[in-house]
Structures are given as C-alpha cells and as structure tokens.
Amino acid sequence: MSYTFTALIFLAMSIAIDLFLTRVCLVRRRAFWTSYAIILPFQLLTNWWLTSRDIVMYRSGAILGVRIAAAPLEDLLFGFALVLSVLTIWIRIGRTD
Measured between alpha carbons, how far is 91 from 97 in angstroms, rounded to an integer? Predict the structure, then answer.
C-alpha cells in the first residue's frame, strides 16, 4: 500500500467521522479553517525540517512526488486528518447533549 493511498484513506475517514459519525461538522465551520490556517505554517516548518535533513525519508515509488516545503504532499493530508480527527473527538467528548 502506498503512502498516497494511506493518506487518502485517513483523510476520507477523518472527514466521515466529522460529518457523519460524530456530526460535529467542523469542516463546515469558518473557525476550523481559521485555526487550520494558523496550524499549517507550523506543520510545513516541521515537515521541512524533518525531510530536508533526511530525518524522515520516503521511497519515491510510494509518494506522488509533489513536495511542499521539502515534504511530500501526503504529509499535509495526514496532518490535516490528524488535526480534524483530534478536534472532532475533543468537541464530541465535550458535548453534554
């Protein structure tokens, strides 16, 4: 299984959990996109640091080859899925209804 395929699966799962399982619907909220815009530069900086120093390396056949800040595009998909999943679960657990 390629890194691209895995990243797309986790992206789809996190969106499905947000919209259908928990019905938190963060992806429909402006506040979520604003907070993600704040998180994204730090994710890019961290990804750049780890990949440009060969701390984390990827097989060329397992990724698309598109890189942003030296990290594969798939890292952004995983990061987005992680942020969305954590915030969705945090909000859902915090609800008292």
Answer: 12
Q: Find out whether 61 and 3 touch, Cβ atoms under 8 Å.
A: no
What residue numbers bound the domain in which 87 lies?
3-94
The DSSP element (H or E) to which 48 belongs, if any, is helix 30-52
Q: Residue 36 contacts by C-beta under 8 Å, 6 or more apart in sequence? A: 80, 83
> In whole angstroms, what is the distance from residue 34 CA to residue 29 CA?
9
For residue 14, count other CB atoms closer than 10 A to its CB: 24
Would you write out the chain's pLDDT as a tens digit for each of its 97 residues? Answer: 699 999 999 999 999 999 999 999 999 999 999 999 999 999 999 999 999 998 989 888 889 989 999 889 999 999 999 999 999 999 999 866 5
What DSSP state is assigned to residue 70?
T
Q: Describe the crossing of helices 30-52 and 73-94 by its angle, rounded to 10 degrees.
A: 140
